[in-house]
Amino acid sequence: MNIRFEIEYRTIFGEDLFLNVLEHDGSQTRYAMSTRDGIIWSSELAVDHAIDYFYTVNWQGREKRSEWVFCPHSFDPKEVSNPDLPAVQRDAWMDAPEDFRVAGTLIPVFSLRSRRSFGVGDFGDLRQMVDWVATTGQRLLQILPINDTTSSHTWADSYPYSCISVFALHPQYVELGALPPLKNEADRKRFDLLRQELNALTQIDYERVNAAKTEYLQLIYEQDGKKTLAAAEFKDFFADNERWLVPYAQYCYLRDAYGTGDFSQWPDHNTWNEADRKVLSNPRNKAFKDIAFYLFVQFVLAQQLSAVHAYARTRGVILKGDIPIGVARHGCDVWQEPRYFNLNGQAGAPPDDFAEDGQNWGFPTYNWDEMLRDGCQWWERRFRNMAHYFDAYRIDHVLGFFRIWEIPVPVKSGLLGQFSPSQALTREEIINAGISEETLKNNTAPIIKDANVSTDYLFLRDHKNPEVFHPRISAQKTSCFSRLSNQEQQAYNALYDNYFYHRNNQFWYEEAMQKLPKLVKATRMLCCAEDLGMVPACVQWVMDELGILSLELESMPKEAWVRFGHVERNPRRSVATISSHDTPTLRMWWDEDYERTQDYYNNILGMEGPAPHPLSGQMARHIIQRHLDCPSMLCVIALQDWLAIDEHLRLKDANAERINIPANPRHYWRYRMHLNIEDLKNDKSFTEGIREMIVKGNRV
Asked: 0.85 exceeded by the pTM?
């Protein structure tokens, strides 16, 4: 009988898979497997007797046998329950071979700089960066989110994690040089002079850059837009993306017409009206012509990014994208599908080393009850859209799929947040634990309506049910805690520890397992997660079960009782890194706290004597090499940290390398590399030095 053998394997490195059949006489036959989606591989063959079999992965001329525990490794056609049905032998998910260990670089697209860019990195620069990554022997290029964030047309829109659409790309990333030239000679000369001026700046002038690029795109649209919109390629793009594209274009038109992205301030169209779709989609209508420019821009961006992705694959480079956990409160996603969002809540993070007062990102929290009702279709569409452009992705703040830190509107302080959802404490539980009724009554925050309410409380009422309570985060630092008796302090600490670290573990595991499995399996992309912060034990359970790569920072260990992690103990399914967009670079970290650096120098690096300051290129090389040598499948180094190994090449002012300061919600995201990519590629000494380090680390 004919049997189709299937195996789930995510193709990210350009691998080929084979089915190997073992006969009882010792002979072996290999059959090539095929895939349509890069996830499910299959091979069909006739089997008339019991066989043993295994799978192999062939990558770069090397073949590796599967060694995962769930595969039965045998098949007997006599055991097929219904021979009249198509017979499929479906085997469990297979992991990548042990020696799939690659190195990569992290750099935001906006931070890229080339001789021909327009004051900000663009998709043309991304293509050049792919070349540099490939030349050094790296196999991965990681970027920050590239979704449109244009809400106010001011520098405040520079925050890449506050997207107005999880599907639309940011117009600032268009490569103007790849578009047809402007026919007007005066315009060509004017824009070229402006390009040179903006490109010479050390940092991004977000407002001038975006205003200039928008004007240029409008001129190109007036010149060639009609022809573009009539092309078959645009019609295909429109048909594939119409669900989100039409509402997005109308949102942008209304935003610009009314001078604000806050749709609650518009005189009309305060929510998307599905009945408008038909008239907006017909080129004969004025409504279509009003929004056509925004359709044109998204088509151009999608074409350019798709070309970069295809090019990266030819160079053997994995493009890794970033999925923000939140969306802009007044963005198109909320405007189009408000049922998916809780506008009474603000997403943020509990206090940590970045922010003692916690973080308030301002994003609306998700209405997971509504999202789960339709099987998380919004999220699945989002992941599938990402797969058009990327082979791997980072889930920003994956903890949000377990629970989010929710701060009530209009409160500013993150200290008044609570985990949502979570199993709050009843009045009886609190009193039975040793807290008096009077203490509970006098130290519980009222229903919060004031933005500047006091934070001096032990308990907060649940946002949905005010009859149950949450311990206030970091309450031990409050004056009301200091006034408790020793007995009540001990009782409170026991309640606090149980609530934050034990009580909700199983509950949060079940919450995440309602959401993440379907999303992780929706695409062929390799799933990585940012799992830093106040991490409950259940996060590792889910990530292990779903094969999600964790993020490992030596300076932010997962174990609360140690000061530094040990890179040599990193789990294989992890991403090792030294710094991220939210942290100081390696050079900054080294000089931030001399006592901490001394501890690291002596006890982690095993060096004797005083730690040298500032960080030398040789020491930076040693630290990076340790990360390249570690077991993590991916080792991703920020470009600033790569540059740290060359004291002549790196930026003189280490503080100017910082991308973001998380404690500052009004941070201006404007860092740009100080070198042109062309010069970086032509620096053979630096390039070869990195290649040697990667070879030494046995990263292919």
From this structure: yes
